[in-house]
Amino acid sequence: MSTGLINTLEEVGALLDIGIALSAEKDHDRLLDRIVTEARRITSADAGTLYLCESEKLVFKIIHNEIMKVFLGGNGEPVNLPPVPLRQENVSAFTALKRKVVNISDVYQAEGFDFSGPKRYDQMTGYRTTSMLVVPLENHESDVIGVLQLINAKDSEGKVIPFAPYLEKVVTSLASQAAISMTNRQLLEDIEQLFNSFVEVMATAIDAQTPYNANHTRRVAQLAGALARAVDATNEGPWAKEYFDEQRLNHLVMSAWLHDIGKITTPLSVMNKATRLGDRQEMVLLRLESIASALRRDYLEAKLAAREKGSLVEAERVEAEWAEAWADWQRIRDLIINADNPSGRITPEIVRELEALMERTYLDAAGNRHTWLTAAEVEALSVVRGTLTEEERRQMEGHVEVTERLLSKVPFPPKMADVPRWAAMHHEHLDGKGYPQRMSGDDIPIEARILSIVDVYDALTAADRPYKKAMPVEDALRILGFMVKDGKLDEGLYRIFCDQKVWEKID
């Protein structure tokens, strides 16, 4: 087999290896850097620049210069050089506009292009730009997405030489593979960004249904991300060795965005229940006014009858009974209004007084008899903590199971398989008394533990809850501490949350 054929086969093999490597690269910035690295290696070029087409300009993304020891852009840092306008006098712009490869033996002898930029660079640095190979990056749709510029090919002894003509096809092939890899990577990123945006829109829409959750999901997502980064920063405690890389962090934040997605099926009458009576409040107050009208009617009729009899004793008795009845009505009205306020304390004595109103009746204007309060109203007013009855609380807690069912219908890619699982676990407690699955201990991963802490913290400190005022941070931390002592929340994460003041790290 001839030496030329062997070299050709080696170059083809190298191109195939490069194509595989480019396809496998997951990080966009490292992909761009690798394109320049491989192009320089296969052409023995000293320097190389990768531009991307953005807004009718070529933007510097990667710069390599072996002799000058300059390597920029490979870690995603911006290259602070002005973009190149798409005008044909510039060789890289010409390549992008005309989709043509340009191979120049010596830029100082070349005509037809403006090389004032490279010459200025040479004058400033002492570098000598000589040979140049400029290739367009075309994707599978024949769109030019960038330009690869290689400078100063070298022979085996390190002497600068022109780029061999056959390298034009080699680099063009490499550029084609690179462009497709870049486009595929961008497409995947666009799809992921679209999915992330859709998740945020859905979560925001659900929150927007009610002031109860107006900004809850966004804050939980921010707090979850901040606590994960705080875990990364800690060097002691049970989570010192835990690390959230970018992908794991993004998946945690996505699970936070999705954690309340099940509330889409929770009745607004439950979500928006700002008082114990909720939407029954107006009906009860109207009934009390109707009872007051009936008492006034009875009083006026009795007063008229006493006047017709001309009995002073009877008139005094009527006035005394009216004063007593009216004071009793006002007391009961105050009792109901105070009990309806979620900040009001419900004692066994208050419950007994409320239950007595289920037996007490009045006649409406049509002569129909009704109780002062119904059993359902007494149940609502007797709630000791918060505003929800047991049935309403079951409805609210059911949102976690709905979250799990809804997300089970979404075809999450394998790398995101844990996202729906974490989202559905944010109410599980380490003592096994959470819901819905009563998981405990090591069965609950750190991601779900993070969600549990930040979800409770935001619920306590949120200023947009209709049934309570925002709790001061110190009081919220005290309650979280009690939950830690009760074995519900993770102590290590709680310490990190407090020590690093995670709540101060979000908007």
UniProtKB/TrEMBL annotation:
Domain HD-GYP per the UniProt entry, residue ranges: 303-507
Gene source species: Heliomicrobium undosum
InterPro entries given in the database record: GAF, GAF-like_dom_sf, HD/PDEase_dom, HD_domain, HD_GYP_dom
Family annotation (PANTHER family): CYCLIC DI-GMP PHOSPHODIESTERASE PA4108 (PTHR43155:SF2), CYCLIC DI-GMP PHOSPHODIESTERASE PA4108-RELATED (PTHR43155)
Residue ranges of coiled coil: none
Protein's name according to its UniProt entry: HD domain-containing protein
CDD domains: HDc
Pfam family for this entry, one: HD_5
